[in-house]
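hey team, just a heads up i'm posting the complex here instead of the shared drive bc the drive is being weird again. everything in one block, sequence lines first with there labels, then the predicted structure for the whole assembly after. its two chains so it's a bit long, scroll down
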Amino acid sequence: SYVLTQPPSVSVAPGKTARITCGGNNIGSKSVHWYQQKPGQAPVLVIYYDSDRPSGIPERFSGSNSGNTATLTISRVEAGDEADYYCQVWDSSSDHPRVFGGGTKLTVL
Amino acid sequence: QITLKESGPTLVKPTQTLTLTCTFSGFSLSTSGVGVGWIRQPPGKALEWLALIYWDDDKRYSPSLKSRLTITKDTSKNQVVLTMTNMDPVDTATYYCAHSASYGDYLHFDYWGQGTLVTVSS
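-- predicted structure starts here --
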């Protein structure tokens, strides 16, 4: 089965850049999506197709994907960005698609 | 405007069967490429995908839970139903349904319901 590996936590000071990684075997050949989840709320899609932003998501959120690592980058981090972030892929050729990474808690110092 | 809302019991006893309903609006589950999935999240833990049903009635299940899950759709009622048998306290979680309009390897969930907390306890 396909495993997505995320660091449990990332800390960043306000105004700096946060990078959250999602590791997987040859993940660069897959389409990666990212979700933000704040406490007590449903997840919100922030990046899809590796680097596209849904309408309403700030340009500060960007994504990249190459080799064995996909990365969610949040520029000029704000206190309101503090949340859990999950990466997601889908392997339609598998009868047993794996979906979400384990999540990363972003702490704004 | 796409909205989804989960409904069902908040408390079930061990060994019972859980039935959750996702009622949606703003899209049709008979439209090519559309799917509705169920995802759960135990308190303080990560998201876990459970099941997905496509517009053409193709169904996918989490391998670890496949024997316990059934997903169905009622297009006329704009509803998707998930049943999970033999409930256990470890199944205590918030259960979400979510919309996808991206088929195949590009699948992702662009709209989510608010979630419903299900507690399994005797």
